[in-house]
Specification:
alpha/beta, Enolase-like, domain 1, TIM Barrel, four-stranded antiparallel sheet, 13 helices, 38% helix, 21% strand, binds magnesium ion
Amino acid sequence: MKITGLKFYQVDLPLAEGNYSWSEGKSVDVFDSTVVQIDTDAGISGYGEVCPLGPVYLPAYAAGARAGIVELGPQLIGRDPTQLIAINQTMDRVMKGHPYVKSAIDMACWDLLGKVAGLPVCTLLGGRFGDDVVLYRAISQRPAAEMAENVAGYRAEGYRRFQLKVGGRPDDDIQRIRAVRDILEPGDKLIADANTGWLMHEAMRVVGAVADVDVYIEQPCATYQQCLSVRRHTNLPFVLDEVIDSVDAILKGAADQAMDVVNIKISKFGGLTKAKQARDLCVSLGIAMTLEDSWGGDIITAAISHLAHSTPTEYLFTSTDFNSYVTQSIADGAPHRDNGRMAASTAPGLGIEPKFDVLGDPKWACGG
Ligand code: MG
């Protein structure tokens, strides 16, 4: 099988809550998503999606993803999309770094592999563990009482894991953590994600003030060393996210005992191929994971569901149904949350069919 053409579409994904706000006053109200289509000489097409969390979360932005795909696309014409390692080697040889640029292409190749094999991507990624996977709800940064109210609302919808967007003023964040934990039940999980927003002294104040609270602390500071310093001064369970972007980073974190959980985002690693490598390494090391992406619509949610559902249940800390945060559906067949959980499709590939009336005309194409 050979790639004969590659194109992409651009689609806006407005947020159901109006906006999504996190550390240091960062906020997005409409996500800019890119859908990649790969056509083949077998007459089958595969689809992938990449959707950075605005330009200020990770070193990634939507127009950059598209500019990079324009560079990479022509180099992939004639290649076999089902040879995932070879496809990734080609992408890494012709473009150094920029993992998020490669993510939707790699995802579309997995969709093709599944369609050719007649198997869902989760089977190809390692199997299907249990009936479904557990989700968390990210709680946009607001005043403490409002965040507690939002958590109560999402808890009533079935979620049992909540990730609070903190990383603001320490006194406000301490109130946010306490206000939300107060309305949760034993067994519910609470994560305070500072998204690199605290300096070390601020992080130390927060972890000290909530030392008696049942809460996880996620990515308090900007650098690995700063996070490690905070980690060594708290007994609260600890999650690393933004600084974990490669198997090297996981190995260093494991050697330093720098975290209890890591967050693996598909586009942060460069696609499902590399996210799978990281996932399998974490299982071998005994490290639990949040498996997700930076953001996305139906296609990314489907890809997340396959990665999460193919992960041994005890290692899956939590996962995300991004398609429930936005008002625009871009594909049929994507998983939809049921009581705080979702399941990967049993159809071949990612199990989705893009809604071309929503995607409109491709913004760019190469090949036939
Ligand atoms: Mg995070």
